[in-house]
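Posting this for the archive.
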Amino acid sequence: MFQAKQQNNALAAALIAVATAFIAATTLMAKALGSDALGPALHPLQISHGRFLFAFMALCCATLALRPAFARPHWGLHIARTTFGWGGVTLMFAAVAYIPLADATAITFLNPVFAMILAIPLLGEKVGPVRWLAAGMALFGALILLRPAPESFQPAALLALGAAMVMGMELIFMKKLSRIEGPFQILFFNNMLGLIIATMAVVAFWVQPTGAQWAVLAALGLSMALAQTCFINAMARADASFVAPFSYGTLIFAALYDVVFYKVIPDAVTLIGAAIIISGAILLAAREARAKKPQTAP
């Protein structure tokens, strides 16, 4: 039977910090694979296939070593969560091939906002004025990053926006799964189902990767598996409202990787848009924390 992890905010914060470094690294590797840096550019569907292939291989090795006890999985939730997760990852990998990592990462921080909006019809949740204000701020920041002027509009940024919307849907199913199943089981079945979906989708776009591309695909899959492990274990040890602000460290690592590997320095538009999105997301997280705080009896 599934037992909840003991709450430990300090450990949760540390795990999220490590996860953000790995997540930003996966987008960096996806950018290299989606360009001609390591050979002919790979299709985003092939990059996401490699992500699930090698992540699942790593989890199979961990399963043989740890021999965890699996409970009966909720297949409906797993299939729904994985389908949206695969779609979001694929769109994100497509976006980073064309726009700076910092821009794409900042736009995908809209996923909790979209999760909040989707929770209204799907979960029957009520949204107050503070949450709507936070959502409006984040969406305004995304509009800035989209650079809607004709001379500066980045069509590929719409791919990152689509990724945020799809990942927002994934968050709803992830939240449900984390209440009834353990972190490792969620990871294992997510990557198993993701590999099945990705394999079916990539058949028409498959090309033989170069040796360097195989190595980076393996590193990408392993990094994603490690990031997921850290993230889900953090979610199991602290409230989501506490964990959420630490996840914005991904933007810091993404911007750093962009500077180091691609010599791309974030401009004023990126900094302003990202700051507005993160401010809205933090306001939303703070509102959720106050809403969940138990009331003291008079």
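The longest helix spans residues 211-237. Residues 142 and 188 are 33 Å apart (CA to CA).
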